[in-house]
Amino acid sequence: MQIVCVDHSPWELRKLKSTVKSIMPSATINGFRDPLEAEKYAVQNGCDVLLCDIDFDGPKWEGLDLAEKIKKLNPKVNIIFVTSFSEREYAESVVQLRISGYVRKPYDRRELVEEFSNLRYKME
Hints:
This protein is of the alpha/beta class.
């Protein structure tokens, strides 16, 4: 299973990767601070689960754009947004993407465990 984690903050990215590794120890987990690098990786290697922030302190909606692009590559990708933004701010966009989960920062490991146990598309 290919899991891609994306966050602009080095600290948040390390925490996210570490937490995901503790939940899915047999998965291949890669982390990126740049959405374009994450997209390149997904094109070359695939992506079964994408965990990303919605806004990367750059042009607005970068995380949503990345999720849309990866969903075009793999329509059955499980997308979990891990973000500081409220669901309300992005509700229409995330509903249209048919995401798997939405976790608010600061998050607890149990929240990610819950999201992985309820993935939209089950992983073998």
